[in-house]
Request: fold
Amino acid sequence: MSTAVNVLRAQSVPARYDTTSRVFHWLTVVLVLSAAMLGLWIAHAEPGEAIKMTLYNLHESIGVTIGLVTLARLIWRLGHPAPPLPADLPDALKLAARLNHGAFYLWLLVMPVLGFIATNAWGFPLTWFGLVPLPDPVGKNVPLAEMVTFAHRLMAWSLIGMIVLHVSAALWHQFVRRDGTLRKML
Ligand code: HEM
Ligand code: HEM
Reply:
C-alpha cells in the first residue's frame, strides 16, 4: 500500500533541476539584477562624477562575470538536461517557455560582448573589479561605440521585458496552476 502511495507521489511531484543547475540559476539572478540596477542607475539617475567610475567598473565587471558564468552554465547544461515541462501544458506554452529560456542564454552571452566592445570603443578599457586588466582588442572608435551601446541598451530593455514575463510565468505556475514548476528550481 505504502509503495503504491510512494509511486503515485513520485509521479505527481516533478523532478527538480540538479543542485549545480539551481546554484547557476540563482547566482545568475543575483548578478543580472545587480548589473541591471547599476546600468539603469548610470544611464538614468545622473550619479555624481566621484562615484560614476566606480559604478561603471562594478556594472562592467559583474557583466563580464555573467558572460563567463553563462558559458559555464551552458556547458554544464549540455550534460544535464532540464526536467520535463508539465505534460498537460499546452504546446504553445511549452514553446514559449523554451524560447524564453533559450533567449536568456543568448542575451546573457551577447550583451556582455557588446558592453565590452562599447567600453573599449569609448576609450575606457576595463580592469575587472579593479584587479585584472582585460585586453582592449578594439581601440577607441566613437562611431562603433555609439552603435554597440545602442544595441546593448536595446538588449537590456528586452531582457527586462523577458524577466518580467519569466517571473510572471513562474508565479502563474505556482499560484494559479499549482503544478510544482517553481519547486523544480528551489
Ligand atoms: C548581462 C550583462 C549586462 C546587463 C544585464 C547590462 C545591463 C545594462 C543596462 C540595464 C544598461 C542601461 C541601459 C539604458 O541606457 O537604459 C546598461 C548600460 C551600459 N552597459 Fe551594460 N549590462 C551588462 C553587461 C555589460 C558589460 C559586460 C559591459 C562592459 C564591459 C557593459 C557596459 C555598459 C555601458 C558602457 C552602458 C552605457 C551606460 C551609459 O549610458 O553611459 N554592460 N547595461
Ligand atoms: C534575472 C532573472 C532570471 C533569469 C535570467 C532566469 C533564467 C532562467 C533560465 C535560463 C531558465 C532555464 C533553465 C534551463 O532549463 O536551462 C530558468 C528556469 C526557471 N526559472 Fe528563472 N530566471 C530568472 C529569475 C527567476 C525568478 C525570480 C524565478 C522565481 C520566481 C524563476 C523561476 C524559474 C523556474 C521555476 C524555472 C524552471 C522552469 C521550467 O521548469 O521549465 N526565475 N530561469
Summary: The chain has a mean pLDDT of 94.
